[in-house]
Structure prediction request, 184 residues.
Amino acid sequence: MHPTPSSSPGVSHPHTLGVRPVASGTWTVVPEASRAAFTVRDKLFATVHGTFPVRAGTVVTDTHGAVVRARMELEVAGVTTGNARRDRDLRKPHLLDAAAHPTVVVEADRVTPSEAGWTVEARLTARGASSPLELRVTPSGADDRQVQVRVTGRLDRSGLGMRVPTVVIGRHVEIDVDALFRRA
Prediction:
């Protein structure tokens, strides 16, 4: 993991961008107050919406409020799309392989402040493979004890080695996460 330290040349501090800096320390996700949603389209006619339970997550910030490390874990066995048969299929070895790989992990490699929050270069690891992922993180409320964020991005699932034609499951997956973090 190679997050951008707050002292790196050319990296602005959050307080210079209109984003309130987050207090320094370790922040832990509140799973019951967080949700991880996805949307994927096939090439024929359907758009599928689904969710994963948020299992765990932490964000570490430095004394300037800059994010130096971030990680979130999602529970594969809990994937839901509103169709029980599709949910079972998603958990099978040729797709997410829940038995061998029970979590989807997203880890930040580089965090850069933006006007609305942060841009995060991350890696999503699922079923034993990783794929790069660019995320936009927007805080919607913060104080010294908790912060609510919305995380959006687009995953190219081709790097994850799922054996299914894009006619059945589209190549790109839209990600939309609402997460509440509390200071540890």
